[in-house]
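From the methods appendix. Each design record in this collection lists the tokenized structure first, followed by the designed amino acid sequence. Records were kept in a plain field format so they could be parsed without special tools. The example shown here is representative of the layout used throughout.

RECORD:
FOLD TOKENS (193 positions):
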């Protein structure tokens, strides 16, 4: 799930409750990433939301944009390195990514990226999206993202934080659910209503 708010709110707390509601979609790991003071702050851990993220309920963490994720393995094994959101700093800036779905041509894309010098830290198909964006010849993040989307195949949706922006993407056929809502100066995205 993701939230973009006009005003600063205790965003990790809101993400916690949203992810808690989505816990049935994944129970292996939970994580969140939000932009605070010009940087992305993130935390991921194995286990249920209540165990992995409960420390976010004890203090306020004001922010305007953030994403969260609960994981159920469909690609890659159950280990902390595969927990999401994945956060990187690259040629296109600092990016946080949470992904739901499967990229059906991931093996082919990953082999190409490894041959070009990429070093993968996880066994998920999610990470290759970030490699493709970072390695794109396009100058801007948005152009690089469009290039990446033109190459991937499958059933997917993902949320990203780039600078102060929440980016939502769903595969062209809408195989994976991605719901948008508006509430009290906030735009929210989630895997279900």
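DESIGN:
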């Amino acid at each position: 799930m993701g939230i973009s708010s006009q005003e600063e709110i205790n965003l990790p707390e809101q993400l916690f409750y949203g992810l808690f509601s989505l816990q049935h979609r994944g129970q292996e790991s939970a994580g969140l990433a939000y932009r605070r003071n010009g940087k992305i702050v993130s935390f991921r851990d194995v286990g249920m939301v209540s165990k992995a993220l409960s420390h976010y309920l004890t203090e306020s963490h004001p922010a305007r944009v953030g994403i969260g994720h609960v994981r159920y393995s469909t690609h890659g094994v159950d280990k902390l390195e595969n927990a999401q959101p994945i956060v990187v700093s690259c040629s296109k800036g600092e990016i946080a990514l949470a992904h739901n779905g499967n990229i059906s041509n991931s093996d082919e894309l990953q082999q190409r990226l490894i041959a070009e010098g990429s070093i993968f830290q996880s066994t998920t198909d999610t990470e290759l999206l970030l490699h493709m964006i970072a390695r794109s010849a396009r100058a801007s993040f948005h152009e690089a993202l469009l290039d990446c989307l033109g190459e991937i195949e499958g059933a997917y949706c993902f949320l990203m934080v780039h600078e102060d922006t929440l980016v939502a993407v769903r595969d062209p056929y809408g195989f994976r659910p991605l719901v948008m809502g508006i509430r009290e100066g906030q735009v929210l995205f989630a895997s279900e209503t």
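APPENDIX NOTE: Helices lie at 11-21, 49-52, 106-115, 126-135, 141-151.
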